Amino acid sequence: MTINSLVDPKKRELVREAIRRKDASLLKRKPQEEPARTVKSDDKRKSGPHLSIFISSKNGLPFEEAFQLVESQKLIIASNKRLYNALNESNDWESIKDVFPCWSGTMTGYEGPGIPLGSVIEYVDQETKFRWIFPVPEKYQGMKDVILVAEHPDYSLEIKGNDRIVKAAVVDIIEKFPAESEKFYFTDPKHSIPFGNQVTETNLLQNLYRFEILDRIEKRVGPVDRLGSNVCKDGGHMVGLINRPSLGFGIAVESIVPYPGLKSVTKIQK
Fold it and tell me: Which among 58, 80, 93, 114 could disulfide-bond with 104, CB atoms 3.0 to 4.6 Å apart, if both were Cys?
């Protein structure tokens, strides 16, 4: 999908104007480095200022297989927010343009609009028939119109037959998760996930770096994907919550030093 297919001509031109203004400001801006972050886990992984291609889009893998390869190297999958920053607040996307479309390390789970959370959220990948399960912390059970979020490497995938269970050490919740897809929304500051009411045309011009297009289905468990590779025109402002985890996408990683990437991709043996 592109912005051309998502909005009416009047609003599309407003977005284009916002992009033109943003591109002009980027030419004067020095690249911003992301601060190092120590993850509280047994292997003490650290993220850093570098974004590197781990798996290119042309060698794209289903998320489960890509996840296992990343885990084998003790790396951190770039989060949705980090990829948003690369696409929309710097020129970092240029060095990783061959990764798009890609999976992010931001794992999510949400129910249908108006449906309260139970003890788990379940989603079935129609291609593989794998059932993706996101256990719901007790304190969040019963809440409606919310989305659960966990960031890599604060979760693992437990595989039991056809079940893919998200085992998260830290689970955040974002309230007022929108029901309507293919619309512009502001995003939460921590994960860059859309929430609240739709963005107005005035807001599109006044808040150039804070809006996203939500692309969602009825209910889902899976990672956020990012489509865009040339600053918004092909989806730089799109939060993908629609694609099956079995699709083959690229993977970018965050690291202290540039990561050389995989020289070849070997499918995980089942």
Answer: 80
Residue length of the chain: 270
CB 23 within 8 A of CB 231: yes
- Could you read off the pLDDT of 116-142 as tens digits, one per residue? 999 999 999 999 999 999 999 999 999
**Token pair belonging to 232:** 């918004």
Per-chain mean pLDDT for the chain: 82
HSE-CB at 15 with a 13 A cutoff on CA atoms is: 28
Backbone φ and ψ for 67, nearest 5 degrees, come out as: -60, -45
Per-residue burial over 203-216, b if 16 or more Cβ lie within 10 Å, else e, is bbeeebebbbbbbb
At residue 181's C-alpha, the angle toward residues 210 and 193, to 5°, is 35
Residue 70 lies in a domain: yes
Q: Total structural domains in the chain?
A: 1
Strand partners, 175: 146
**Does residue 30 sit within a domain?**
yes
Top-confidence range, 182-191, 195-204, 239-248: 239-248
Q: pTM surpassing 0.85?
A: no
Which tens digit of pLDDT belongs to each residue from 90-100? 888 888 889 99
Helices (H) and strands (E) in the chain, counts: 4, 17
Tokens of 46: 């650290």
- Name the strand (E) or helix (H) holding 20: helix 9-26
Q: Distance between CA atoms of 198 and 11, rounded to whole angstroms?
A: 13
Tell me if 262 is assigned to some domain.
Answer: no
Domain region containing 33:
3-255
Residue 43 and residue 246 in contact, taking contact as beta carbons nearer than 8 Å: no
Rounded Cα distance, 178 and 57, in Å? 29
- Which two tokens mark 85? 């920053």
Write the single-letter amino acid at 144: K
